[in-house]
Amino acid sequence: MSGNPGSFQDWFRQDRLPHIYCTGCGNGTVINCTLKAVDSMGWTPEDTVFISGIGCSSRAPGYIVTDSLHTTHGRAIPFATGVKLSRPDLHVVVFTGDGDLAAIGGNHFIHACRRNIDLTVVCMNNYIYGMTGGQGSPCTPLGSVSTTTPYGCSEPPFDLSELAVAAGANHVARWTSYHVRELTRAVQDGLETPGFSLIEAVVQCPTGYGRKNKLREAQAMVDWMRDHAVLIKKWRRMEEEGTPLPPDRFPVGEFVRRSRPAMGVPK
User: Which of 28, 112, 148, 263 gets the most CB atoms within 10 Å of its CB?
Assistant: First the structure.
């Protein structure tokens, strides 16, 4: 199965399809990119484990043929830490969302970065709690409407990628579900890098987020991501030049790749 180009679909648990995601959801794109990256590593289902918490993103391991853990809200990283430290020989990948990772699981996320545990975390950031009714999350952009911010979000959002860099992760990258090729490459880079890796994938959620923010159609959200993403090199150059950073734009690319000492790496 593994290592054969185009065979990533063999990783799907066919008896669990079709999936439950809403029409136009971007999570499927991220799952495909992740499985393609995993397959390109030559890994097998027997030596790979997928772990998740709660939310739309966290349904993903249920569609994959490997052993998996669908855990409690915000606790995917503690479960993944236990698996990795007890079995360093296993490849451990975490699927999570912005609510799961940044709110209830926020401290777990920060300390896993600090400890630099050998995990690859793929976060599907749709800016809200999608599964539970479209409530605002710690990543909801300023001014955006959700069921709990009906007059527009007034709290500044977390920047998950910058947070992971500051906390000590060895590899951090952000792309969107529009950037399929770059996202796949970023996940593979994370799998190849010893230590903690965060790949933040901004995804469209036309049902829970888009329709409240004048982006009702999936294509409109994909177009918005394409038009508002700025390559990280250009973003950094603008910072250095003192050029005002547009508040509705966001940087994409590789934020960091380094070699701090890591926990859970096979000796």
Answer: 112
**Which position has the token pair 């951090």?**
172
**pTM confidence score:** 0.95
The structure tokens listed for 8 are 């990533």
pLDDT tens digits for 43-66?
Answer: 999 999 999 999 999 999 999 999
Q: What is the pLDDT of residue 197?
A: 98
The contacts of residue 193 (CB under 8 Å, 6+ apart) are 170, 171, 257
Cα atoms in the Cβ-side hemisphere of radius 13 Å centred on 259? 1
Write down the H helix ranges in 55-171.
76-86, 98-99, 106-115, 160-167
CA 164 to chain centre: 12
Q: Of 166, 102, 180, nearest to 139 (Cα)?
A: 102
Q: Residue 222, by phi and psi: left (phi above 0), alpha (psi -120 to 50) or beta?
A: alpha
Q: Identity (one letter) of the amino acid at 92?
A: V
Which residue stretches of the chain have pLDDT < 50?
Answer: 1-3
For 221, the enclosing helix (H) or strand (E) is helix 218-228
Contact by Cβ (8 Å): 30, 186:
no
Give yes or no for a contact between 168 and 119, defined as CB atoms under 8 angstroms apart: no
Q: Which helix (H) or strand (E) holds 6?
A: none
Residue type, 20: I
Give the span between the Cα atoms of 128 and 135, in whole angstroms: 6
User: Which CATH code is given to the segment(s) 19-257?
Assistant: 3.40.50.970
Q: What is the pLDDT of residues 92-141, one digit of tens each?
A: 999 999 999 999 999 999 999 999 999 999 999 999 999 999 999 999 99
Q: How far is the C-alpha of 94 from the C-alpha of 108, rounded, in Å?
A: 13
